[in-house]
Amino acid sequence: MKECERIGELFGEFHDRCLDDGSEKLMRDHFLTCTPCREDFKWYGFTVQALASLEEVSPPRDFVAQLNRRLDGAYVTPPSLLSSYLESVRNFFATSPYLPLPVGLATLALVVVVGFAVYDHTGGEYVQPVSVLQAHQETPPGTMTAAGDAKVVRSLESSPSQPLYSPPNSSFASPALNVPRQFVANPKSLTGGIAVGNQRFATVAERIGGDNLTVEATSIDRAIESVKKILPDMRGTVIEEKSPGRVGERVLGVVIPRGAFSNLTTELINHGAVAVGLRPEADVPAPSNSEAGNVMLYIHFVQTQ
Amino acid sequence: MAASPELILTCLCLNIVSLVVVSTLLTETDQDSEWVNKCVQGDREAFNALVEKYYKKIYNIAYRFVGDAEEANDLAQEIFTAAYQNLNKFRGDAKFSTWLFQIATNRGKNKFKYLKRRGYFLNRGQTDDDDDRESGRAIPDESMNPEDILASKQLQKIVQDVIDELEPDHKEIVILRDIEGFSYEEIARILNLPEGTTKSRLHRARMVVKDKLKKVLS
Questions:
Q1: If contacts are CB pairs under 8 Å, which of residues 189-208 in chain B contact chain A?
Q2: Which residue in A151, A263, A262 sits closest to A216, CA to CA?
Q3: Is the pTM value of this prediction over 0.80?
Q4: Is residue A150 within 8 Å of A138, Cβ to Cβ?
């Protein structure tokens, strides 16, 4: 009996010939042995035929005339200027009603992406992207590469015996310090308001961005110690040292005079590390008055093998 | 493996070109949308062109919902009037015909519910039965062949009476699919239902009609 119910459920698909070969064979086999189901299916087919055989009825001859008389009294709201404008915007890309709004929006998004891509490639010197391995092999120490999508990678691995610290009189000059901003682990926990004495530095930190600078080091402890040694020479101080919760990562919050920003970051890059999120000095946001010309910077240390 | 920027740009450009081409092709084949646009700007002739194109189909749908020529005429007029008054709300997300058939189905279903609540179909059935008894032809003659049975006026009336007894949801889907011959895809768009639901609802409706026909004709 249960099988008959199951067969009954498949009448529609069997009638429309939408069943797969296996199910169709099952139906035929069942009809051979089950007379009630066979009869029922005959009635099902007859029903569909009977419905389809209903004759077309003709509307009255004066249907259109009647309708016109009726419509003469009907009022159609003329389109407002705003709705006309919205309509033209909506149909800017989807000129046919068959192309719905999402398609138009998707096209607009594509155009914007292409626009940005073209702008990015024509606005500056184009540099072919290089792989990490290539960068290791090709980038000579102490030189910086122009922006584009190039990834400047010079990790401490390339000079494992060299400490991060360098004497203050070392060359800080970096004429083309323009390292692309890349998004890496973001020490969000440190971007809240932090006060040092009467000063609050969070605003600048937030304006610089949580991912100010990432340093890859084979020994995080040694790298942090080196930074701490550099800071007094720059009249900078460590205000916070935290672990963001991931093994092999530490974040150092430092306050340095605005003028020393370039020195510190250049120093870090000149002594290895992956520079992430650095910008040209001109792009460094100006500290607010309350911050007395200081800049707060987060240095994100990441352990490398 | 990273794709080069040139490749990405090329793909995006091709994508845009194909969208524009598709858009152009569709625009050229859509006479309705042109009439709709003219009509929204106040061109009554454009609306007349739409009426000429669809009024027979709309009248037939209306007739199947109410089962009576006079009521069907009223309903079809009401459907076109509603479409005319709401043309400025037609957003163009779907075809004009889909939108028009949506109005027809909704209005037809509402009219059917209204008439059913008022006992219209019961009273009419009673009157028709009396007429049939007087003329002595209630049920098709068994000696007739299947084609004749299907074509007979009696069967036409029996089938209309059976669908008048259906639930509104069953009635609309039977009218759209089995009587007016819309595809499942079109029905799904008109009724705003998934295609699977459309099929299963149609199957249930057909089973109800089958049982009723079996009862009447056996």
A1: 199, 202-203, 206-207
A2: A151
A3: no
A4: no
